[in-house]
Amino acid sequence: MTDTKEYSSAETKDVATFFHGYAADFDSIYGHTKKRGNWDKFLDKYFRVSMRLRYELVLKYTAASEIQTILDVGCGGGVYCEALLNAGKIVTGIDIAEGMLQLAEQKTKKYINEGKVNYIHNGYLDHPFARQYDAAVLVGFFDYIKTPLDTFKKLEKEVSKEVLMSFPKSGGFLGWQRKLRYKMRNCPLYYYSKNDLKTLLAQMGWQNKAEIIDIDRDFFVRVKL
After folding, report:
1. According to CATH, what is the number of the domain 9-224?
2. How far is CA 156 from CA 17, 133, 200, 201, in A?
3. φ, ψ dihedrals at 136, nearest 5°
4. Using one digit for the tens of pLDDT, what is the confidence trace for 162-185?
5. Considering Cα of 38, then 190, then 200, then 152, what sign does the dihedral take?
6. Which of 42, 110, 126, 168 has the maximum number of C-beta atoms within 10 A of its C-beta?
């Protein structure tokens, strides 16, 4: 990891502000809201392969019949929530960006009315859950988190079967370019090496429960609790 400073509420606010304003643009990557231009389509095809791969992996691992209730941490515009609901799961989404949650609610209005999904506008570490979920999905979440262990410890209490996570890789020109772009928008961004992940998993005692999958510009981590 490139930074080990403590969790900061001010930084969380910066992330929330960034994604509230960026919601429609970000969501369009998955084919919703705004129409994609030719340049964006080129980037999607050649430089956002990991976004497609991690999406496919989440749907693959949550397809198991024993996984019925899913917590989507940092659910954003509801892309994963919608797909999981379509697969017959019961979902709770939590996000700090109000603009993102508005998109998620629009996408899944039918399921909200049926009581199969609910959304929480809050930070994950700040919200107490009174129940356990079969699985948790944290995709595109740890990009903005300084201290993953805090989140891991909370997940261990609130998830009974599987945790599915993505972590952006450190290094490379595209990684540097993305970091610069986010810095210009006052949004923090953190990268991880495979050794970083092995260390974090070992600190949780998860080293024998986890699988680290290399997917283009990300690592996908599956933890079987």
Report:
1. 3.40.50.150
2. 29, 10, 14, 12
3. -130, 140
4. 999 999 997 654 554 655 565 555
5. negative
6. 168
| Distance, CA of 213 to CA of 210 (rounded, Å) | 10
Angle at CA 179, nearest 5°, toward 195 and 181?
Answer: 165
Burial letters for 20-47: b for 16+ Cβ neighbours within 10 Å, e otherwise? bebbeebbbbbebbeeeeeeeeeebeee
2 residue type, one letter: T
Domain ranges of the chain: 9-224
Are 147 and 7 in contact, with CB atoms under 8 Å apart? Answer: yes
The four Cα atoms 150, 152, 60, 49 give a dihedral, to 10 degrees, of 40
Per residue in 4-61, pLDDT (tens digit) is 334 445 445 544 444 444 444 545 445 544 454 554 444 444 346 788 899 999 999 9
